[in-house]
Amino acid sequence: MYCVVAAEPGALEVIATNLQKKFPDWRFETAASPGELFALAGTRPDVVVVSRFLPGDPVEVLRRLPVEFPASHIVLLVGVLNEQAKAYVRQAAKYGLTNVVTGKLPGDRPYTIFAALTRARQELLEIQEGLEWEEEAPEASCGGRESIAAACSAQATREIHREVQLNQTDEGNRDALTGCYTRRYLENADLKCPFSVVLINLENLKPVNDILGHEAGDRVLAAFGKMLAENLKDRDLAVRWGGDEFVLILPETSPENAERVVERLREEWRKAVPGTGNLDGNLEVGFSYGISFNNGTEDLQATLRSADRAMYSRRQEAEQAPLLKKYYDSVYTRRSGGKLVLVAANKGGVGKTTVAISLSLLTARAGIPTCLCDFDFGGPNVAVFFDVKNKPGIEKLSGKRHVERFARELLVKVENNLMILPGPMNKTLPYFEPGQLAEIVDFLSQDCLVVGDTPPEFWTKPWMKELFQRADLVLAVVDQSKFSEAETKDYAPKLIMTGVEPSRIRIVCNRFSAKLYSVKRVESFFNAGIKAKKDLPRVVAAIPEDWEDFVKKGYRGEIAGLDDPASPWRKLAEEVARELGLPFTTRNEKQEKKSLFSLFRKR
């Protein structure tokens, strides 16, 4: 097992030494700052242990942990459970981080640090025997090393000191990577005089991370922070707001003069970027910005929102950065009319995801720009079918303002005219505010047909309602082999309950056999729960009874019959295109049958 331990200097060595003693077969790496921690993300540790008192912005660290270490078992050391610690635990839970060790090390029983390294908190049933935290007497320690008990006591003292003095010490208010002030510092600042706010967003930082690695991205951030420090006045505040966003507070500065400051910073940044070692002729790391003015009496958050809107408007008017523009334009060559198709099922295991993938492939091959979106956060990621690995997905849009800024960077081109928006990299369900998913779909559907794979029992997922209400067509997948009249009668009303009109529902019947039920009888069962008497849902595809062959090939990265003009998949795609008024051009030449994995390696 491989474990990374990240904690404040002093406590770090004590923690790592004790863990190495109790887990002698494990390999341990240590990190004393967020920069050092996230530089180890590419090493794929099995376990990551992070102290609440790691220098830097704790909220930003929590936000990045599940994204940078999606496959790792993450353990948080919270310390004594006071009000600050409780707030930290609540914030961690928002990002799906629940394995928290509380109290003076080794932690409050039964979930001590030793137990935490090998199991999730909710799964702990008993204390792991034989793992006791050593508290050597000072005279028994080797080489004069301080006892662990003394170190823990010192750590508790540091906790109290840090929490009381946080707003009085410059070090506690600084972001460790960039040297800028933290978001928490600005939110607690007492700003009385008039000032201009500049909201800055670094462009193309994600491609730098993806192509050159997160260590390179951290170098860019550190260089940007250094450039700000060297070119702003002492009275000005440079704040790392989060991720690739920065905020500048310029006291007694008009918006016009703030523009001049930004232009000077832009010129200095052009000089500084080559020194980061990231420019290879293909990546252009610039920044966009928005400016707003506060007379000293207005709400800071309102001023920030105004600056955010100004930045968005400026970016809409300006040409996109060359890398992203070329990437995006190469995918969407013509408009599809902006349609949304959702694939739904009332239970798992009925081939819903296979239907969504097959439909997307065939519409794309018919010349319709298509985007396949994975809204089934807890199910198999559609990226697996296309051999797309270790790519962040829709979870990166959680909490983002103006998602169009970020959505383009997450899309993965898997075939001509076909992009995918992958699902979450791990099983942690991302949280979306009401309206956020609708905003994502509204943006994507401006330029392509959006096909959404939805979760089983969709009616229990409150975030899905806004998508069903927007859908132009809903494909309701029914598994005939386990057909139940009562079950199917309940299916349609649940769709209608989410805001879908019966006229927008079409039925896809899997495992179909005429020996069991006719298509008309399937329709009658499905429509029995609908009060309307016209424009009722109808079956548009019947997948044959050798359905298992379709499923097995699907999980091998193949779709049975995908290239057969007479297959039910082709008929389904043609029917959907016709319903939506989209042109469907059949290829004149039958393609050689290949697995999806071999088809999509070239991205």
Structural class label: alpha/beta
List the total number of helices. Answer: 22
Number of domains: 3
Q: Strand share of the residues?
A: 15-25%
CATH class label of the largest domain: Alpha Beta
The biggest sheet, with number of strands, parallel, antiparallel or mixed sense and barrel status, is: 8 strands, mixed
Low-confidence stretches: 125-169, 275-282, 317-337, 588-603
- Widest sheet: strand ordering: 13-14-12-15-11-16-17-18
Number of strands: 18
Rg, alpha carbons: 28 Å
Query: What spatial form do the alpha-carbon principal axes imply?
Result: globular
Helix content: 25-40%
As an assembly, this protein is: single chain
Q: Give me the CATH fold name of the largest domain.
A: Rossmann fold
InterPro entries: Diguanylate_Cyclase (IPR050469), GGDEF_dom (IPR000160), Nucleotide_cyclase (IPR029787), P-loop_NTPase (IPR027417), Rev_trsase/Diguanyl_cyclase (IPR043128), YlxH/NBP35 (IPR033756)
Organism: Desulfofundulus kuznetsovii (strain DSM 6115 / VKM B-1805 / 17) (Desulfotomaculum kuznetsovii)
Domain GGDEF: 193-327
Pfam families: GGDEF, ParA
